[in-house]
Specification:
It is a single chain. This protein has 726 residues and is an all-alpha fold. The protein has three domains: 7-189 and 396-552, no CATH class; 191-247 and 255-381, Up-down Bundle (Methane Monooxygenase Hydroxylase, Chain G, domain 1); 595-725, Up-down Bundle (de novo design (two linked rop proteins)). The protein is 81% helix and 0% strand. The protein contains 28 helices and no strands. Helix 23 (607-632) packs antiparallel against helix 27 (694-715). The chain starts with a helix and ends with a helix.
Length: 726
């Protein structure tokens, strides 16, 4: 073969090789993202659990099974989740250990008072867990049932309390170190990678969705469903940001920008919704002339949102280019809008207020989307001036729900504890532990009784398997390698079930309690009767909790949902009366958080969920307009001089809107409409009195637009308060 032939064939060979390598890489990535990720998670869980068991046995700790159970509790598919959960487990375990020691010291040899103290502590921790989100919830949960795990076994012999606490702390520490090391070192799946995918996908999908809305290609029922998904993304993003910050220094450097990005995403969603709602209200009657006038602007912006320049560049670089184009569009929009307005002044002067309001909402949406795009583009830089900004996400939980959770936990744990002390049941302590763990782990579940029943079934299965292993497996194996071989399938089974949404209760309970009931110790004591009794006790404690959840304190009680919905509607009072500094962030984040809580309790796409979603949507559109109105009317002494009733009518608007949303009825709706219309008349009078002062006229024109939009929202027959009034 000549050199010329080799030269001709080599590139083709290399080309085929590169194609094969790329296809293999894509296939491997797809496999890891699907079934491969599941198998990898099972392998890492079993490896970390057996490593913790081996180290605890090597150090001759009294209960190596506790180290193994710690790994089962901690392991997550992504490294950042494991690190975050480990951190909060350390915090929670420390608090629980301190509480157990303090209660043991105060109520030494007084089991009744000690049990009362433990019950109140578990109830308080479980209630506090409901108040917080993500793995902060886990710290409070651990603080509650760790006190039970340490203190309950020694309540009858307080002399061993301190040593028991120290030993458990050592075993838990080994489990934390092993799970963190295996997750970070063995084929790590990084939360930061997931976060980057979320950012890229969310930006792209929202751009396409906004373009479709502007182009009038989204039906109303589809729109509501897509917006509900956006609400879930907003709240869930904060958890992903926290997980990634634990493992990735680059994410920690950008954490303030990421918080800002989420806030700006909320603002852009709200502005888009307001624009969409006003457009829908103007598609009938003479208002269609306004839509025809603004449709070219909508079409141009829709094209800008979906255009992608130079696909070979990173997504952030393309976003930077898009931000420049959006800025150019926004800068020229007022001048172009004035030209369009002149053509309407003679044709349909009565529709000028509709046109002005539409263009103002369009301008606000472009402004917010541009900010969102600029912040997203800034993520390509490790250091940026936006990192100096501070964005606060406000979490809001109904006080009645917190008190309800406390009372439910105290009743369940207290009833089991009282029975244990009254009967002196040898395994009664495990029943208390089972009730405490159930109350803690189901505190945020939408159907607590169902999850508690699943956990009871999982523990029953773990008891049977533990009995079989104690009687027939452990006596017939020798050496740690064989022990690992027989335990691996069971650890993998528990981890697999815990990943299934419908079977998570079975898998979690089986994994934890197989380790605690049937796991091996340094010296295996063949007491199958003890395993059975302890297992029955744990199942009994869980079933008592299940009965309490289902009969006495069901989670799905209508009053609880109504209380949270009322808190959601009361957000209008925050928009009308809250301090203006940081009000928009506080209003947006707390409103979305309340909606997310209701989303957990309500079946998605159900009638109740749709009604709640509509309340949130009208709350966001009116609430943001009220905040804009309040910001514009600050420092306007000339308005009060020209019209003495100006401040009074604005106060009436705020007061009547807050009253309408809290207790909607016909009289309050009529009063709110009258206040808004009175404010519009005075604003129109002031607009005529301001003469040729361009700055003041533009400001008053914006105020008129906000008032008019609020009026259209109140007149919308699809608004939820009309349904409530009926």
């Amino acid at each position: 073969m000549t050199d010329e032939k080799v030269a001709r064939r080599t590139p083709a060979g290399f080309s085929r090789l590169s194609v094969w390598v790329r296809a293999t890489r894509i296939g491997a990535a797809a496999w890891i993202a699907g079934d491969g990720g599941v198998w990898l998670y099972l392998l890492k869980t079993a490896t970390a659990a057996l490593l913790a068991l081996g180290i605890a046995m090597l150090l001759e700790l009294s209960s190596p099974r506790t180290a193994m159970a710690t790994v089962v509790v901690l392991m997550q598919p992504f490294g950042g989740m494991v690190l975050a959960k480990s951190f909060y487990r350390v915090v929670g375990t420390t608090l629980g250990m301190v509480a157990a020691l303090m209660l043991g010291g105060i109520f030494a040899q007084q089991p009744e008072l000690y049990m009362l103290g433990i019950t109140v502590w578990i109830g308080a921790c479980t209630a506090a867990a409901l108040r917080y989100r993500h793995f902060q919830w886990y710290a409070f949960v651990l603080a509650g049932y760790t006190a039970a795990l340490i203190g309950i076994p020694t309540v009858m012999e307080p002399g061993g309390l301190f040593m028991g606490a120290m030993t458990r702390a050592a075993e838990v520490t080994i489990g934390i170190l092993c799970s963190s090391a295996v997750s970070a070192l063995v084929l790590p799946l990084r939360s930061s990678t997931v976060l980057r995918n979320i950012l890229r996908t969310r930006y792209t999908n929202f751009s396409v969705f906004a373009a479709s809305v502007l182009a009038e290609r989204v039906e109303s029922d589809v729109y509501e469903g897509r917006f509900a998904d956006l609400v879930d993304q907003i709240v869930g993003f904060e958890g992903a940001r926290g997980f990634a910050s634990f493992e990735d220094p680059n994410t920690r450097v950008r954490t303030r920008r990421l918080a800002r990005l989420n806030s700006e995403f909320m603002n852009a969603c709200t502005r888009l919704h307001a624009l969409h709602q006003l457009s829908n209200r103007m598609r009938t009657g003479r208002a269609r002339l306004v839509m025809e006038a603004v449709r070219p602007y909508f079409g141009e912006l829709s094209g800008l949102l979906v255009s992608r320049k130079d696909p070979m560049k990173p997504d952030e670089a393309r976003a930077a280019r898009a931000a420049i184009e959006l800025d150019r569009f926004r800068t020229t929009l007022p001048t172009r809008a004035r030209e369009t307005r002149r053509s309407l002044e003679t044709a349909v002067p009565e529709l000028l207020l509709d046109f002005d309001t539409t263009m103002e909402l369009l301008y606000r949406f472009v402004e917010e989307f541009q900010r969102y795009t600029e912040t997203y583009a800034s993520l390509i830089d490790q250091k940026h001036v936006l990192e100096r900004s501070v964005t606060r996400q406000v979490v809001k939980t109904n006080a009645y729900a917190v008190a309800f959770t406390f009372l439910r936990t105290v009743v369940a744990v207290g009833a089991v504890g009282a029975f244990w002390i009254a009967t002196n049941w040898p395994s009664g302590g495990f029943a208390v532990i089972g009730a405490a763990v159930t109350c803690a782990l189901t505190s945020t579940a939408p159907n607590t009784s169902k999850v508690a029943a699943q956990m009871a079934v999982g523990v029953a299965f773990a008891t049977v398997v533990g009995y079989v292993f104690t009687c027939f497996v452990y006596p017939n194996i020798e050496g740690f390698p064989l022990l690992c071989a027989v335990l691996t399938p069971l650890l993998g089974l528990g981890a697999f079930l815990s990943m299934r949404p419908g079977a998570a209760g079975y898998g979690t309970a089986f994994g934890i309690f197989f380790c605690l009931l049937g796991g091996p110790d340094n010296v295996v004591v063949y007491t199958p009767d003890l395993i059975i009794n302890n297992g029955i006790a744990v199942v009994a404690g869980m079933l008592v909790s299940c009965i309490v959840f289902a009969v006495i304190f069901p989670t799905q009680m209508s009053w609880r949902i109504e209380k949270i919905k009322r808190d959601l509607r009361r957000q209008m009072a925050l928009a009308c009366e809250g301090a203006l500094v940081g009000l928009n962030q506080k209003f947006q984040s707390s409103t979305h958080d309340l909606m997310f809580q209701l989303r957990i309790l309500l079946m998605k796409r159900s009638e109740q969920h749709r009604d709640t979603l509509r309340w949130m949507l009208v709350l966001l559109e009116v609430g943001n307009s009220v905040i804009d109105l309040r910001n514009e009317t600050v420092d306007m002494p000339y308005a009060a001089r020209l019209q003495p009733g100006w401040d009074t009518v604005l106060d009436s608007v705020s007061r009547d809107l807050a009253d309408l949303f809290e207790r909607p009825d016909t009289a309050r709706l009529t009063r709110a409409l009258a206040s808004v219309e009175a404010a519009i008349r005075i604003a129109q009078f002031l607009l005529g009195e301001l003469g040729e002062n361009r700055e003041k006229r533009d400001r008053m024109q914006r105020i008129l637009s906000y008032l008019h939009f609020i009026r259209t929202a109140l007149l919308d027959k699809d608004a939820p308060f009309y349904t409530t009034i009926k």
